[in-house]
Structure of Adenine DNA glycosylase:
Amino acid sequence: MPKIVPYFPNKLISWYLQNKRELPWRNTANPYHIWLSEIMLQQTRVLQGLPYYLKFVEAYPKVEDLAKAPEDEVLKLWQGLGYYSRARNLHTTAKMVSEEMNGVFPDNHKNLLKLKGVGDYTASAIASICFNKPEAVVDGNVYRVLSRVFGISTPINTSTGQKEFKQLAQQLIDEKQPGTFNQAIMEFGARYCVPQNPDCGNCIFNDNCVAFQQKKVAELPVKIKAKPVKKRFFNYLVILSENERTILQQRMGKGIWHKLYEFPLIETSEEVNLSTLKKLQQFQDFAKKINIETISLFNEKPVVHKLSHQHLNTQFWIVETLEDSENTVPISEIGNYAVPVLIADFVSEFFENY
C-alpha cells in the first residue's frame, strides 16, 4: 500500500470546485435523483446519459411515479442507452423503495446494497453524496487516477486489485466532505487523467505522480486481457403483410435484450445466403405458419452491431405475405415498442419511406 499523503484530497477537491461541469444531479442531494444518475452513467458517458436522465426525471418526478409505470414504458424510454438489465433493475428497485420503504431510500451503504442493481460503487456514491457517509467510490476513472498517481500495477480486474484500490480510496477520502471528494476523483479521471494522451505536463499531481515520473502513464492501470469477442450471426425475418402488419416477438430468454422486442430471429453459425437460409429447419418451420410470397435481403453487407463481449453480424430479410398470421402488429405502431438500437436503426431506415 503506497504512503498516503495529505495533499491528495485537498488538491483534488480544489481542482474540482474550480473545474467541475454543471450537471443537474450535482445540484441536489435527493437520493432518487442521485441513484437515477448513477445507474444511468454505469458504462455510459455523461453526454450520452444526460438526455435520458432529463427524460426520466420529467416523466417520473418521484420514485413512486417510476414504480407505477409499466415496464414496457420504462424500457421504451430507456431505448438506446444499452445494458437494458439496468432499466429492469431500476424499475424493480423503484417498486421496492416505493412499496416496501414508503418512498424513502436507505441512508447507509449496507442497506443500499440490498437494492437490485446497486453495487458497491453506486451504494458508496449515494451514501456519500446524499448522507455524507465516508464511503469511497471506485470505478474505471478512480482506478486510472490512483494507479497512476501512486504507481500501482496490480490488475484492476482481479479481486486482489479491487480490494487494494478500494482500501486506498477509503484511506484517501475526505471524511468531512466525502461526496465532494468522490465526485472530484471521478470528474478528474473522466476529464483530465484520461485513458489516452492525458495532459500530464499541466496536471496538478505531476510533481508526485509515480507513473509520470517513471514514464509509465500509458502502462497503467493494468488490466488482464479479456476473453475474445464472440461473433454471432443474426437473421431477422421482417414480415410485411398486404394489410401493412408485421410480427414482433419479445425476447424472454437469458442473455442480451431481455424483454425487448424484435422481428422473428434465426441465428446461424455463419453468414448465410437465401438458398442456405431456406434449407434451415427453423426457417422451414416458420414458413409453414406464414404464406410467403417473396423474400429478399435488405442489406448487401451484414450490419455489425458491437456489444461489450460479442459482435452481432446481422442480415434483415424482407418477407412479403398476402395474409396476416397470428400476433401481428401494425407497422405504424412499431415505434411504440421497446426495441434494441440495432432494430430501431433498421426500422428508421427501412420504414421511413415505406
Remarks:
- The mean pLDDT is 92.
- The beta strands are 230-241, 245-247, 249-250, 261-262, 265-268, 292-297, 303-306, 310-321, 328-330.
